[in-house]
Amino acid sequence: MTKPCPGPFPASPPKFKAPANACDTHMHIIGPVATYPLNDDRSYTPPDSPLEDFLAYQEALGLERAVIVHPSCYGTIMDVTIDAVQRMGDRARGVAVVEPTISDAELDKLDEIGFRGLRFTTLLRGGAAVDDIAAMAKRIERLGWHVQLFIDGANQLEGMSPALKELPVDIVIDHMGHFPMDCGVDHPGFQALLDLVKTGRCWVKLSGSYRMSEKGAPFDDMPPYAEALIATDANRMVWATDWPHVMLWDRPVPDGANLLDWVMSWGVDDVTMHKILVENPEKLYGF
Predict the structure, then answer these.
(1) Cα–Cα distance, 280 to 276 (Å, whole number)
(2) Listed residue (131, 158, 133) closest to 146, CA to CA
């Protein structure tokens, strides 16, 4: 039996006022579990975090768009995420987790609903295996989709980088590569991430600061990673809350206001901020 993890709480009002059409590019909808039962093979047991709760959270932060990433606790049973994307309509896009045996017709249907990528992970049970990336990338190239990766950047990204550069589709890296603070920007894995960004075909989610920060909110030990990524190519950066913040057993659940206000620590101008929060997500997800 997997260990239960805490759930989110309502966001406080942020200091930073997000621009119109700002997008949270990484969040999950979970439950109601009575309607959408969790997968038996999973890494965590979350509480209900339904769409209605996220919409209230989104409104409190002043955000208008969202990318709903299918959570690994549902495996490849996509019903909860499909429902949420459909209910949000033009304000949402989806990232799917699928079996490699999925048909082209099923992929086409997901595309029509609003899905724009496939997620793979080495860190969570129930997620799609990275061994399938190359084959699936060829299949989704015709749709203009991307592959999204949640991996252990410090130990895996450098080795995976050559194969990732050969993919025929764009790559999206979750949570700045999930690098612990003690790695630093000179770590070979992080340098491999910057090298991927330089190709112009790799996007990075400036998110997950609360997972890796050693100080906690306001996460003022995390800007060096974001700053290095933005300096490499601000046109390939997007931002996210990672709501409902699953798998937090040893640190506090973050306030959404702190996650949004963290963007002020990057020291970027309004034009760059607008790219990261609005224009880049529009391009990547087709809003």
Answers:
(1) 6
(2) 133
Residue with tokens 């209900």: 48
Q: Taking the model in full, what pTM does it have?
A: 0.95
Question: What is the 3-state composition of the chain as percent helix, strand, coil, each rounded to the nearest 5?
Answer: 45, 15, 40
Sheet of 202-206, strands arranged across = 23-27, 65-69, 92-96, 115-121, 146-150, 171-173, 202-206, 237-239
Task: Please check whether residue 85 is in contact with residue 113, taking contact to mean a CB–CB distance below 8 angstroms.
Answer: yes
Sign (positive or negative) of CA dihedral 217, 221, 223, 228: negative
Which of the residues are catalytic?
242
Residue 247: name the closest of 83, 43, 96 by CA: 43
> What is the rounded distance in angstroms from the CA atom of residue 206 to the CA atom of residue 226?
6
The count of C-alpha atoms lying within 13 angstroms of the C-alpha of 199, restricted to the half-sphere facing its C-beta, is 20
How many CB atoms are located within 10 Å of the residue 37 CB? 13
Question: Residue 268 in contact with residue 130, Cβ under 8 Å?
Answer: no
Q: Which residues of 98-135 are buried (b: 16+ CB within 10 A; e: fewer)?
A: beeebeeeebeebbebbbbbbbbbeebebbbebebbee
| Joined tokens for residue 97 | 């987790």
Q: What is the chain's pLDDT, residue by residue, as a tens digit (287 residues)?
A: 577 888 898 999 999 999 999 999 999 999 999 999 998 888 888 899 999 999 999 999 999 999 999 999 999 999 999 999 999 999 999 999 999 999 999 999 999 999 999 999 887 766 667 788 999 999 999 999 999 999 888 999 999 999 999 999 999 999 999 998 889 999 999 999 999 999 999 999 999 999 988 888 889 888 899 999 999 999 999 999 999 999 888 788 999 999 999 999 999 999 999 999 999 999 999 99
